Amino acid sequence: MKKHSARVAPLSACNSPVLTLTKVEGEERLRDPPGPAEAQAPVGTDTGGRPSPRCWRCSQAQLKKIFWGVAVVLCVSSSWAGATQLAKLTFRKLDAPFTLTWFATNWNFFFFPLYYAGHVCKSAEKQSVKQRYRECCRFFGDNGLTLKVFFTKAAPFGVLWTLTNYLYLHAIKKINTTDVSVLFCCNKAFVFLLSWIVLRDRFMGVRIVAAILAIAGIVLMTYADGFHSHSVIGIALVVGSASMSALYKVLFKLLLGSAKFGEAALFLSILGVFNILFITCIPVILYFTKVEYWSSFDDIPWGNLCGFSVLLLTFNIVLNFGIAVTYPTLMSLGIVLSVPVNAVVDRYTSKIVFNGVRVVAMVIIGLGFLLLLLPEEWDVWLLKLLTRLKVRKKEEAAEGGADLGLGPQSKSGRARPSFAR
C-alpha cells in the first residue's frame, strides 16, 4: 500500500451502495478532527471563568461538521432513494436494465472535470488541467496511466462496477425497491468478511455478530414472500450485486490502497471512459438480438433516464467528497435512511405488504449495518465511559456524605458562642 501523509484507506467507515466504491481524504480536507488536547478543551476555562477561545473554536468546528453531516445525510438518502424509484419508473416504459446501467455509468466521465472546476475555484495554487492530470496519474505508479495499467488496474474494476449496477437494477424489476435497498445494506457485512479473510483485518466479535444478522435478514426476507421463484431470483440478484460491490472495495484496497480527492475523481472518470470504449457494444448487441429492445427512440423516457443518472452522479459525488466537511459515519447513516424513504413510497405506489417477517428482517439487517459502523476501539471507549461514570458517582456520594457529616458540626459550632453568652 502506498504511503502518503494525505491519504487514508478507502472504505473505512462508509460503504456506498452501488456507485461509490472509494472514499478519499486529505489534499483538500477542510478541517481535521480535534486531537486529544482539543478534545479536553471544553473543561478548560480562562482566568475570568469563561470558556477559552480554543474551546470555542473547537466547539464551532464540531457544530459545523454536524450541521454539514445532517445536510449530507439528507442528500445521500434522498438521492439514493430517488434514483432507485426513478429506475423502477423507467422500467415501466423501457425494459432494459443493462442499457440503463451503461447510460448511467457514462456520466462518471464528469467526475474529473467537476473536480478540476472545484480545484480552480478553491485552491490558492491553481494548476492547468494537464498539470493536475499528471499529478493525479501518480496514483497508478511512477509511469502514470499507461496502457498496461489501464487494462490491469482499471478495466477489472470497470467490469465489477458494471456487474454491481446491472444486478442491482435487474433486481428492481423482480422485487420491490424497499427489499432491494435494505438487502443491499448487507454489502457492508460482506466487505468485513472479505477484508478479514483477504486483507487480514482485525477480528471483531461485534462485526461477526453483524454479519450473522445480515445473513439471517436475507433468509427472513426470502421467507417473507414464501420462497416464490420470482422473489428468490430478485433476492439472489441483490445479494450478488452486494457481493460484487464488496469484492470491488476489497480489491481496490488490496491493489490500489487509498486515494486523494483528485486521484479518486480521475479513477472514476477512467471507469466512465472504459464503459464508453468497451461496454458500448453490449447494449448494441442486446438491442439487435431483441433482448433489450424498444420500437422507437421516441418511446424512451429520456426524462427518467437522465434524472436517474443525475441522481446517481449526485449521490456519488456527495458520498465520495462529503468526507471533506463531515464525519464518514454520518454519511453511512444516509444510506440506511434511504430504506424507510423507499418503504413510504412503496406503501402508496405498489402492493407491498409489510408483514411481521418482513419488518423483522428489515430491522435485523439495519441493526447489523449500524453495528458495523462502530469504530474498532468502541469497547475501549465504552469501558472508559463506564469507569468515568462510576468515579463520578463515587465522588458525588463522597461529597454528599461529607456535607451530611459537616452539617451538625457547623450548627453546633455556631450555637456554642451564643449559648456561652
Automatic annotation (TrEMBL):
InterPro entries: EamA_dom (IPR000620), EmrE-like (IPR037185), Solute_c_fam_35_mem_F3/F4 (IPR026505)
Pfam families reported in the protein's UniProt record: EamA
Domain of life from the UniProt record: Eukaryota
Residues annotated as domain EamA: 68-222
UniProt region (Disordered), positions on chain: 27-53, 395-421
Keyword Transmembrane: yes
BP-aspect Gene Ontology terms: thiamine transport
GO cellular component, one term: membrane
Keywords tagged on the record: Membrane, Transmembrane, Transmembrane helix
Residue ranges crossing the lipid bilayer per the database entry: 66-87, 107-124, 145-168, 180-199, 206-224, 230-252, 264-288, 308-340, 352-374
Name this protein carries in UniProt: Solute carrier family 35 member F3 isoform X2
Source lineage: Eukaryota, Metazoa, Chordata, Craniata, Vertebrata
Gene: SLC35F3
